Amino acid sequence: MQVQLLVGTGLYPFRPVLAVGGGICTKILTLNTHSLVEENYQQKLIAFMDMIRKERPDIIAMQEVNQSAGAAPADKAELDGLVPVPGREIVIRKDNHAMRVANMLHQAGIACSFTWLPVKLGYGIYDEGMAFLSLDAEITETDAFYISRGQDYRNWKTRMALGIKTDKTDDWFYTTHMGWWDDEEEPFQAQLELLNSCLLSRTADSRVWLTGDFNSPDAVRGQGYDAIRNLGWQDTYLLAEQKDEGITVGTVIDGWRDLIEDPSSMKGMRIDYIWSSRKVPVKYSHVIFNGKNGAIVSDHFGTIIEAETETENMEKRR
After folding, report:
1. Are strands 160-166 and 139-146 parallel, antiparallel or unpaired?
2. Rounded to an integer, what is the distance from CA 238 to the centroid of its chain?
């Protein structure tokens, strides 16, 4: 089954690598950053940037991207490359993690644009949200919507999705951070139905990539992972010609402590994914920032893929 969706709610030079199918090869990275919550944050930020400069992903999707709610607003000069989410009054503050990453990229001579969406108050002190960074390509459109029943910024269960489109490809990229399967107040299934419905409502002329922390282990049958696949979403890990073990969480983390009966027996989970709305050639899917492929910088590991994205409609517009 193929998901019939696609969305639509420069200044950045790039060197396209042509793919066999006529599109271009694109590197996509997703990571739940934990950002300011992490111990030794500054050291981990530097390690993160070292790997980004090495890998040069085209699209970076990040969850749990924080800023201190009481910090001073960022200066205009610090917001170079920012593409705001329309219709939302968002104050980006001086310690905003996404902004710091973007500025460090600029300092390294790497052009990028970025967007950030606050979703909820985290740990009572952080504006917590999601972000996209697009390297060597300009973000041309953004999109955002709620997937949780509640929309209270002070409720840690509030969930949203954030999307972007760039001037490099016809494809749309979305990221989200979903709840848990058996949560009575905010069940996963309800969030998934709303997420999928919102994406299905878009125009059907583009591919969609859906990234993020889905809090759904692929080894558990009949729950979140299977529910996503049953809607027609393609797990790029399964499509990849080359792959590793895929584990994105190696220890018991926040949100899972009361759900795992014997934490000492935990061998790791794959709960962070990059999905595609269509079956697509994927060269590889690798875990990153796991201590083997890059330093550990968060309580999650990242996932990076190289796959084919479409440019047909862009060529027609030129």
Report:
1. antiparallel
2. 18
Angle at CA 115, nearest 5°, toward 144 and 84?
75
User: b/e map of 91-111 (b: 16 or more CB within 10 Å)?
Assistant: ebbebbbbbbbbbbbeeeebb
CA–CA distance, 131 with 64 (Å, rounded to integer): 9
Distance CA 204, CA 206 (A): 6
pLDDT, one tens digit per residue, over 169-212 is: 999 999 999 999 999 999 999 999 999 999 987 657 789 999 99
- Say what the pLDDT of residue 2 is: 36
Ramachandran area for residue 291 (φ above 0: left; ψ -120 to 50: alpha; else beta): left
DSSP per-residue codes, 49-78? HHHHHHH--SEEEEEEEEEETTSPBPPGGG
Distance (Å, whole) CA 41 – CA 93 = 17
CA-based nearest residue to 216, from 235, 239, 241, 196: 235
Residue 134 phi, psi dihedral angles, 5° rounding? -115, 115
The pTM is what?
0.89
Q: How many CB atoms lie within 10 A of CB 57?
A: 21
CA 207 vs CA 121, 194, 279: distances in Å: 32, 19, 10
Residue ranges of the alpha helices (H) in 158-234?
A: 188-200, 224-230
Q: DSSP state, 301?
A: -
Q: Work out the widest C-alpha separation in the chain, in whole angstroms.
A: 58
pLDDT per position as a tens digit, 107-162: 999 999 999 999 999 999 999 999 999 999 999 999 999 999 999 999 999 999 99
Integer Cα distance of 279 and 275 in angstroms:
10
User: How remote is the C-alpha of 18 from its chain's centroid?
Assistant: 24
Backbone phi, psi, residue 236, to 5°: -65, -20
Whether 308 contacts 169, CB under 8 Å: no
CA angle 132, 246, 48 (to 5 degrees): 40
